[in-house]
Design brief:
It contains four helices and no strands. By secondary structure, the chain is mainly alpha-helical. It has one domain.
């Protein structure tokens, strides 16, 4: 959401560094968080596949190119971009909402598996 107020090259550089750091953490933690809620290691491949399938359906690539598009995220982002006459405000809000919903669902799954404790081992 800080993208709205950036107007200088220095601000863009700071945003790019922070975005890269947090996006890398988000991508790398998907597999480990999925594995942490798996009770039977024989099912870990199935769980990883299901979580990857959900992510691939709603994925919005950072550059919004159709070559890497998901089934839902990119067409919706394109429609929002066209509706806002080229403004990325709607796309940023849509992406942020998707990240918040996904994080909430992962936290709920984690708390369900660990019986209400976030930091406990499953």
């Amino acid at each position: 959401m800080t993208w709205y107020v950036i107007s200088t090259p220095a601000g863009i550089y700071v945003f790019a560094v922070l975005y890269g750091f947090f996006q890398g953490a988000m991508i790398s933690l998907q597999a480990s968080s999925t594995a942490s809620i798996c009770k039977d290691l024989r099912e870990i491949g199935t769980m990883m596949g299901m979580s990857s399938a959900v992510c691939s359906v709603a994925y919005i690539p950072p550059n919004h190119e159709a070559d890497y598009s998901g089934l839902i995220g990119t067409p919706i982002a394109g429609a929002l971009l066209n509706a806002d006459h080229g403004s990325f405000a709607g796309v940023v809000g849509y992406s942020a909402g998707g990240i918040l919903i996904g994080t909430t669902l992962a936290l709920v799954a984690r708390m369900y598996i660990s019986k209400g404790k976030v930091w406990a081992r499953a």
